[in-house]
Amino acid sequence: MDFLLTDEQREIRDAVRRFAEEVIRPRAAQIDEQDAFPRDIVQKMGELGFLGIPVPERWGGVGADFVSYVLAIEEVAKVSATVAVILAVHTSLGLLPLVLHGTDEQKEAYLRDLASGRRLGAFALTEPQAGSDAAALRTRAVRDGGGYRINGRKVFITNGGEADLYLVFATLDPEAGRRGITAFLVESANPGLIIGKKERKMGLNGSSTTELMFEDCFVPEKARLGEEGGGFRIAMSLLDGGRIGIAAQSLGIAEGALELTLAYVKERRQFGREIGRFQGVQFILADRAAEVEAARLLVYRAAALRAKGMPCKKEAAMAKLYASDTAMRVTSDAVQLHGGYGYIKEYAVERYMRDAKVTQIYEGTNQIQRLVVAKHLLRSTQ
Amino acid sequence: MNIIVCMKQTFDTEERIVLENGKIKEDGVKFVINPYDEYAVEEAIRLKEQHGGQVTVITLGPTRAEEALRTALAMGADEGVIIDDPALFGDEYTASRVLAKAIEKHPYDIILCGNQAVDDGSGQVAVRVAELLGIPHIGTVTKLEVADGKVTAHRDAEGDVEIVEGRPPILVTAQQGLNEPRYPSLIGIRKANKKPLTRYTAAELGLDAGTASAKSEILETFLPKPKAGGRILQGDLAAQVKELVQALRTEEKVL
């Protein structure tokens, strides 16, 4: 058993860490406060290859493994959960579906641009009535001549309005349930795609979350990803990778908040000494640090399984729920240990706490993750 | 155009220096390319991009310094050379002799170096190398142009700018402001692992511990005194000057 990163993984992590520290960290508070999509940073990340880490070199990607990708999300999330989610959604849900299910023609048309950051990807599955129950989606696709016509509404679409390419899920036959669901690649320039209202969120400000409306949105046959009725299977094939990505984001948020808190308790003096010297504070720090380490092991192991193409559904669900619950606890304690200053926007930890909350909700709520884990447990004891 | 860059791996300037038994502790310290050398690497890659050619990066130092070479290769250098034979570690005299011997094994038109290293800060090695190789050098350069077989450099001359011309082969040292070094791309990092890295031993360079041994010796290493609160002198100017001179003589003992 080897718990060490390879040289290449370490080099990629260090390169992303340096960029995150020098370029993203100084901007993180401003991105949050102005709720402004950090286009320039996303563009720079594209130039440096951050937006195509697990994409084969022949399609213009870095050709690194899934673990390297997870390390990159973690490093970015340490300084900005917002930039991390832009990266994670683009890669896990924008790029990887094409890598896994795209035809060579589709890869040629989109993958090179996505991997180099010339185009940004997004994923449109969720609807007002179809969240955890994704198969209940109502967006309709109807065959029309040499293609399809899509009508319906999507909500909570990350990178909405900023992305150049949307992977859209619609049903060809509402009666058929999940077997009717089909995936389509829709370009932002398509006149039938209308960007709806931009949500104002508790956290992850600066990332764009919007409604999407499809009004007689025509796409040609070649825009279909996979088979007719194969959409649900495509969505499911992305779940593990998506969850591990969000688990890595959660881990980064927790680590970032813990680092800030450690620095603070060494500086802040009360009763004539640094508050980090009080045992009551030390116990909190030690517990949270141990949880972060446990989360790290879960995340890395799930990522290593995913990188080797081994089954990792249970491990991905565990990593996601544990890392995000840890992020919530760590950031809440980070605010607590900062005292009154923790509640004030001049100190970054309140942002980490707001950002952490959604990691327990999106990419499958932690309740759904627990169901997934329990299903595996009970099945294997039968 | 063949360009050689001499570089050194140094402490990250953000690191806190800790002494243990009179030596600087290296455990858990983050190392980086000496920032001045990073300007040199960037300039070399830009020259290559403009004029074509080959960039070779050379370092003398412990095996960990290979990481710094890899970073330079990831930025776009073509080939790395490391001399990590402890028999060849010494002072500036040693370093310049070793580097000159290593450089002689490679063709060059321009040698780029940092103006100084942020750790020892002697600023000696590059100019000594030029002397040993018998080539001219231009120091503390903030702008560099190569055209028509001529090198034109703007150099930082104590706050003024001096414009100096030279002809290759020539050695140039980089000053802050020369350029803004790029971040290595992730594709560059992966490619770097496939680029050639050569390792020279003392014997291969025709040197031994005797011929290259240090001419100077570090007697003591100590941290500066922690900063105490300043003191603002009061009273009329003549009295203040008198008090200042006295303080410098008796308290600080610098006069």
Written description of the protein model:
The complex is a heterodimer of chains A (382) and B (255). Chain A has 382 residues and is α+β, with helices and mostly antiparallel strands. Chain A has three domains: 114 residues, Acyl-CoA dehydrogenase/oxidase, N-terminal domain (Butyryl-Coa Dehydrogenase, subunit A, domain 1, Orthogonal Bundle), CATH 1.10.540.10; 108 residues, Beta Barrel (Butyryl-CoA Dehydrogenase, subunit A, domain 2), CATH 2.40.110; 148 residues, Up-down Bundle (Butyryl-CoA Dehydrogenase, subunit A, domain 3). In chain A, the strands form three sheets. Chain A has a four-stranded mixed β-sheet. In chain A, strands 2-3-7-6 form a four-stranded antiparallel β-sheet, covered by helices on one side. Chain A is globular. The mean pLDDT of chain A is 96. Chain B is α/β, with parallel strands linked by helices and 255 residues long. Chain B folds into two domains: 211 residues, Rossmann fold; 32 residues. In chain B, the strands form three sheets. Chain B has a nine-stranded mixed β-sheet with strand order 11-10-9-12-8-1-6-7-13, sandwiched between helices. Chain B is globular and about 65 Å long. The chains are: A alpha+beta (382), B alpha/beta (255). At the A-B interface, helix 1 of A face helix 5 of B.
By DSSP, the count of extended strands of chain A is 10
How many distinct helices of chain B? 7
Strand content of chain B: 25-35%
User: How many strands appear in the DSSP assignment of chain B?
Assistant: 13
Mean pLDDT of chain A: 96
> How would you describe the oligomerization state of the chains in this entry?
heterodimer
Largest sheet of chain B: 9 strands, mixed
The level of helicity of chain B is 25-40%
| Strand line-up of the largest beta sheet of chain A | 1-4-5-8
Estimated radius of gyration of chain B: 21 Å
In the CATH hierarchy, what is the superfamily of the largest domain in chain B? Answer: HUPs
Largest sheet of chain A: 4 strands, mixed
Q: What is the H/E order of chain A? A: HHHHHEEEEEEEEHEEHHHH
Name of the CATH class of the largest domain in chain B: Alpha Beta
